[in-house]
Specification:
13 helices, globular, 6-stranded parallel sheet, 413 residues, alpha/beta, two-stranded antiparallel ribbon, 8 strands
């Protein structure tokens, strides 16, 4: 039997449960198979990077994921006596960056010699890292905290790492058209990019959709007229800002003034719990202000310890990470690296670094590229909702189910 292997990769601090809704929707369409059929799609939700292992850096997360994929492939072929003839991969958030690294490992390992690369999908993935599109104090603090308290991954997301001694950040190298990362991605039959157009407080639009500008920052969202893909709301088909002011009744005006719903753990509690929360809130906040930095520091320290162990292993035997770094160094030494930009710190007038602008340019030259913008409103943060990440805990996450159906229906078999 021919097997189409489809790999799912979660994001930062993630776990396999984050794909429960996605797997349910996918299996409802592609999971059932006719015993007489010679083809089937098999899902593999990678387990190797759960929790704070995502601090270790994109290369080590991809290393673990690639090993799990290779083991699954051997099991399918040797134990189940099936043949993998097609391969697809879907990454959510940071998982999309893992996916870009994983396929380069597979490409360099000749995995695709007899396997057809079919679907490459990312959902709310920071393809150019976390850009500083504003100069606010919060943005500066976020960069300091994120780049130092999220381990190697934080440095890579903020583009301050030195990949394989090249003097360039990994994100910049991975977007270079002459490198294995870009070429492995360009080989896929379909490349589908799902990005939140609005309300994503985690991954900005310009990074999720790798675009030079965010047109939605200039739009009054409340006055925008949007049209969705038929049957796939909230996938955006078209949008414009209404030129004609709408006449609202008094009740509609009051409704418009209502605060956005808070999708976090503290909802509107009934008496007396709301009173208890109000009294205890100062103490809770004080504890959190102490515990959160300590937790980040301890997790970062644990990550550094893991990375040191992995680097020791790398010195003793060849790992995928060793192979990829050597390959990158060879490509650069041979003069094959084109489009080299100024250092990542240099910025343009749009808040994007010059290297980020080059990343955007290169990524938009990928073949078979399809972008899908998502309009989820009114919510405070659409990042988790886009994949119904915790639908069982937060019913509002079901607002993203149209995205999952679109992903499934456009999946090339």
């Amino acid at each position: 039997m021919q097997v189409h292997l489809h790999v799912l990769l979660h994001g930062l601090w993630g776990n396999t449960k984050h794909f429960e809704s996605a797997a349910r929707v996918f299996n409802a369409k592609h999971g059932t198979r006719d015993d007489e059929s010679q083809n089937r799609v098999q899902l593999l939700i990678v387990e190797a990077n759960e929790g704070t292992k995502t601090y270790d850096g994109i290369e080590w997360g991809a290393e673990r994921a690639a090993k799990e994929i290779m083991e699954a492939a051997r099991r399918i072929e040797e134990k189940d006596h099936h043949t993998i003839d097609k391969f697809s991969i879907t990454g959510y958030s940071l998982g999309g960056l893992y996916a870009r690294y994983v396929i380069a490992i597979l490409h360099a390992s000749d995995f695709f010699a007899n396997v057809q690369p079919m679907n490459f999908v990312t959902i709310a993935t920071p393809h150019i890292g976390i850009p500083r599109t504003d100069r606010s104090l919060f943005s500066r603090l976020a960069k300091v905290v994120g780049s130092h308290l999220l381990g190697n991954t934080g440095q890579q997301l903020y583009g301050i790492d030195n990949w394989a001694g090249t003097g360039r950040a990994w994100l910049e190298v991975a977007s270079d058209r002459s490198c294995v990362f870009w070429n492995a991605l360009n080989a896929f039959h379909r490349i589908d990019i799902y990005a939140n157009a609005i309300n994503d407080r985690t991954v900005p639009y310009v990074s999720g959709a790798f675009e030079f500008e965010d047109p939605f920052t200039k739009v009054n969202i409340e006055k925008a007229e949007v049209e969705f893909e038929a049957g796939y709301e909230p996938i955006l088909k078209s949008w414009c800002e209404s030129k004609v002011p709408r006449k609202l009744s008094l009740s509609q005006r009051f409704q418009a003034w209502k605060p956005l719903p808070y999708l976090g753990p503290f909802r509107q509690w009934n008496f007396p719990y709301n009173l208890i929360l109000m009294v205890m809130l100062p103490m809770i906040l004080s504890v959190l202000l102490f515990l959160l930095p300590m937790t980040f520091l301890l997790n970062t320290r644990a990550s550094r310890s893991r990375v040191l162990t992995l680097q020791k292993l790398m010195n003793e035997e060849e790992t995928y990470s060793t192979r990829m770094k050597l390959l990158t160094q060879v490509e650069q030494a041979a003069g094959n690296v084109v489009g080299h930009t100024e250092p990542a710190q240099a910025t343009s007038d749009k808040g994007l670094s010059l290297s980020q602008r080059q990343m955007i340019k290169n990524l938009n030259q990928l073949s078979n590229l399809h972008k899908h913008l998502v309009w989820i409103h009114p919510v405070r943060n659409s990042h988790a909702i886009i994949i119904c990440r915790e639908e069982s805990q937060f019913p509002d996450h079901s607002l993203g189910e149209g995205v999952l159906r679109h992903w499934v229906d456009h999946f090339a078999l």
